[in-house]
Amino acid sequence: MKTPLKIRIDKYAGYPLLLIASLFSRCRKLFVDEKKVIQVRRIVVCKLMGMGTILQSTPLLISLKESFPNAHLVFVSATKNKAILEEIKCIDQLLLVKDRSFFSGILSLLQILFLFWKKRPDLYFDLEVYSRFSTSLTALSLARRRYGIREGSDPMREAIYTYTADFLQQPVISEAYLSLASQAGAAKLHHQLIRFTGSESAEFRQLSGPYLVVNPNASDLRLERRWPSKNYALLIGMLLDHAPEHTVVISGSASERAHVQTVINEVDKKYANRILDASGQLSMKAFIAMIARCELMLTNDSGPMHLAMALQIPFVALFGPGSPIHYAMPARATVITKNIHCSPCVHLHPESPCGGDNQCMKQITVPEVFEACRKHLQTAMRESQVLAMP
Questions:
Q1: What is the pTM of this model?
Q2: What is the 3-state secondary structure (H, E, C) of the chain?
Q3: Looking at the chain, which residues constitute the CATH 3.40.50.2000 domain(s)?
Q4: pLDDT under 70 in the chain at which residues?
Q5: Which of 10, 27, 105, 383 is deepest in the core (most CB within 10 A)?
Q6: pLDDT digits over 94-147, tens only?
Q7: Which CATH class, in words, describes the domain spanning 3-183?
Q8: Which of 21, 26, 31, 61 minimizes the C-alpha distance to 43?
């Protein structure tokens, strides 16, 4: 299923389910003492959508694993996130929702619930801020302690959780997640994203010289996060003129190959032998290795941006429908955003109010993005000169 359809199903079908789950939780609290001390043997973390927010949850995962080293850590997510989750080694078990269709999704959710009823979670962390299905799954898991994120007052959701963190009071999402770990008694809080090794991969050894990675994509959670393809095409030409020794690698998943090809087709043909289309060509391990070795990444607000954060490489990120205040941006990052009247909209509206006319991205100019990239490349050149000194 495409993400907009999932959101509509969650909105309409999820409401009666959430109402039932909320009433069930209120009744359960009358008979179950949720404050008594428990031994933590089994922890479940649920984040159904979003590669970026899964990466932002890694400080929580590390903190839970270090604070409860003998507990079995389970992560619940959608099948499309399997590749990135397999690279997060502190997770002991993956439970995947097969969401290719509504019925396969419901069936896999029932199978997951059956596993929870057989081996009851001691701690359950629901990291979805808006999903009614995810909140209902939390209640039906029968977990002894339940932790969740809310946005302002929400009595139905608050009835389900034992403890909550308010997204409005703590907008940096990784810190909001960590506040849940603190409430659960985690003694060791880890504030940095997981460090991937970025080790060499046999799938990505095509480039011996320096290169830049350009990610012109954004998932269907909000396609309006894309900067116009003609802008990317013009900028790629400017970057290749400025850095004649460099190659540009354009990243993307298999489903994004058509959009990547649109960008490539708009680039002047004289640069053809200095552009590499990596969309749909690499495993997750090879994709991580590719990003780890690049001198600079240019990206929309999307999952690969969070990988750049985790790998601690310099990057330029373009924001419009989303907001950079939700992420602890590192010093080596440059964020460009216009903050127009309707931005950010991604968390406020199921569909963009602009109807696709994403002025928040269109008003970002090619010269200002080029200047940000130029400064990063200049810094990289100085650093390489220092390293080359005897």
A1: 0.91
A2: CCHHHHHHHHHHCHHHHHHHHHHHHHHHHHHCCCCCCCCCCEEEEECCCCHHHHHHCHHHHHHHHHHCCCCEEEEEEEHHHHHHHCCCCCCCEEEEECCCCHHHHHHHHHHHHHHHHHCCCCEEEECCCCCHHHHHHHHHCCCCEEEEEECCCCHHHHHHCCEEEECCCCCCHHHHHHHHHHHCCCCCCCCCCCCCCCCCCCCCCCCCCCEEEEECCCCCCCHHHCCCHHHHHHHHHHHHHHCCCCEEEECCCHHHHHHHHHHHHHCCHHHHHHEEECCCCCCHHHHHHHHHHCCEEEEECCHHHHHHHHHCCCEEEEECCCCHHHCCCCCCEEEEECCCCCCCCCCCCCCCCCCCCCHHHHCCCHHHHHHHHHHHHHHHHHHHHHHHCC
A3: 3-183, 211-388
A4: 197-206, 383-390
A5: 10
A6: 999 998 888 898 899 999 999 999 999 999 999 998 899 999 999 999 999 999
A7: alpha beta
A8: 61
Rounded Cα–Cα distance for residues 1 and 248 (Å): 32
Measured in degrees and rounded to the nearest 5, phi and psi for residue 218 equal -155, 145
Select from 211, 180, 197 the least CA-distant residue to 67: 180
Q: At 372, which amino acid appears?
A: A
Assign domain 211-388 to a CATH class: alpha beta
CA nearest to 55, candidates 330, 308, 255, 319: 308
Report the distance separating Cα 59 and Cα 268, nearest Å: 43
